[in-house]
Specification:
Blueprint lengths: L2 H4 L2 H9 L20 H17 L9 E6 L2 H11 L4 H5 E7 L13 H10 E5 L8 E4 L3 E4 L8 H16 L7 H4 L5
Parallel strand pairs: 1-2, 2-3, 3-5
Antiparallel strand pairs: 4-5
Helix pairs in contact: 3-4
Length: 185
């Protein structure tokens, strides 16, 4: 309907206000001439722009925060599970989903470190008409209400709750609600 609800611009703007760098992934389609799809795109971009730099002494990446919407959660799952050197688990302070598909594998492939990461660092704000940030349950990770009944609006509806949580995870002063409210048409 609008750029505030149909794009990541508001997330990027709030990140820049906090002086955070941003790397945007688009796992919903193919990526350039390489024709990567979803999980492959995320793994390729992560390897090129994050992983290959983390071992460099000049690297200034100290924290990683993830927002994953819808199918982006599956690609994030793969990223978290396949990070052999555990860089992502070491640097990622929080992973926010918006009506996404996070899950730990139940085939014995999960390790305790990954289970602890999901338990302590992953929240999925899901489609719900309940008030924003209402706790809806816990399995491998916490589920909270996005405060909107439509899948397409979960990201923009939950942005204030997500950034409050990010601020807490980063040890920052929690911002006033009015600073982060978005108008949903």
């Amino acid at each position: 309907d609008n750029l505030s609800c149909g794009t990541m611009f508001p997330f990027i703007s709030l990140a820049y206000k906090r002086d955070w760098g941003v790397l945007l992934f688009d796992p919903n389609g193919k990526s350039g001439s390489n024709n990567y799809y979803s999980d492959d795109h995320v793994m390729s971009v992560y390897k090129k722009h994050v992983y290959n730099k983390l071992g460099d002494k000049a690297c200034n990446i100290t924290n990683i925060l993830i927002v994953a919407h819808s199918a982006g959660g599956m690609a994030t799952n793969r990223l978290l599970r396949n990070d052999k050197d555990k860089y992502i688990l070491k640097y990622c302070k929080a992973c926010a989903g918006t009506d996404t598909f996070f899950s730990l594998p139940y085939n014995g492939g999960s390790n305790n470190e990954l289970k602890q990461f999901y338990k302590n660092n992953v929240i999925n704000w899901v489609t719900s008409d309940k008030e924003l940030d209402t706790k809806l349950g816990f399995s491998d990770f916490e589920r909270r209400s996005a405060g909107h009944g439509s899948h397409a609006y979960t990201s923009c509806a939950a942005i204030s709750a997500i950034f409050k949580w990010f601020d807490v995870k980063m040890g920052l002063k929690v911002c006033n609600d009015d600073e982060q409210k978005m108008r949903i048409i």
